[in-house]
Specification:
- The structure is a single chain.
- The protein is α+β, with helices and mostly antiparallel strands and 230 residues long.
- It has a domain at 3-122.
- It has eight helices and five strands, in the order H-E-E-E-E-H-E-H-H-H-H-H-H.
- It has helices spanning 3-16, 77-100, 114-120, 131-146, 150-163, 170-190, 195-206, 215-228; strands at residues 20-26, 38-43, 46-55, 60-70, 107-108.
């Protein structure tokens, strides 16, 4: 695969907010590789997508792995994971087309063990009324933000909205908006960004607080903050 194409794939993945690992090695006739399909698999709670690109001229194989997409460590996580996966499949399909200039012949998901993960896993909090359930989602949200995986961060935010924020009053939503902006800023400081510049952004985002008047505006402004602080 050409360096320009590798750069393009990395740029697309970075813009989407999805981790990418691209490695190239010499083609071996003994390699049993599925070249026309996309493989989706999980390592415990981390889901990855992988496919290959073959260059007949250079006799090289490029392996492209994207992820992780994280399974929420909450009991209701399995109910929403399919929406995440469908979006993930669409992104992988488009990346496959860009790389191989052809459509994939399907997905190999034989190693995707979602149901067994949720069956074997035990969760400390299993009632949505417990604050700990929300806290686990919040930790997942900031883990995605630290990894610059905006796609997964937005999906996790949607889970927070669906299962927690929608029950809050406007005043409570404003409180959570402020707390999220503050925590987002601290995440960026941990990464080494200049404090003065981040605080300027923080106070700018605080200025949108009066616009938080309902659930839609809360979610929209929070997503804007995640984009702006990354």
């Amino acid at each position: 695969m050409s360096p320009i194409l590798i750069y393009s794939i990395n740029s697309i993945a970075e813009k989407i907010g999805l981790g990418a690992k691209i490695t190239t090695h010499n083609f071996n006739l003994d390699d049993q590789l599925i070249l026309d399909r996309i493989t989706i698999y999980n390592n415990d709670r981390e889901i990855f997508g992988k496919f290959f690109s073959k260059d007949e001229h250079t006799r090289q194989i490029t392996e492209l792995t994207f992820g992780p997409l994280l399974m929420a460590e909450v009991k209701f996580g399995s109910e929403d994971l399919e929406d995440n996966l469908e979006q993930f499949r669409g992104v992988l399909k488009n990346l496959f087309v860009v790389t191989n200039r052809s459509l994939p012949q399907g997905f190999d998901e034989s190693s995707l063990t979602i149901s067994s993960f949720y069956k074997k896993s035990t969760f400390t909090y299993n009632a949505l009324s417990e604050i700990g359930e929300y806290y686990k989602l919040e930790l997942l949200l900031f883990a995605h933000i630290k990894d610059r995986n905006k796609m997964a961060a937005f999906r996790t935010l949607s889970l927070c909205v669906k299962y927690y924020y929608k029950f809050l009053t406007v005043d409570q939503l404003k409180c959570f908006y402020i707390s999220i902006i503050t925590l987002l800023t601290r995440v960026e400081i941990e990464k080494g960004y200049p404090v003065n510049k981040l605080f300027d952004k923080q106070f700018q985002l605080y200025g949108y607080l009066p616009s938080v008047q309902n659930m839609n505006s809360f979610e929209s402004l929070t997503k804007k903050a995640i984009r702006k602080l990354q």
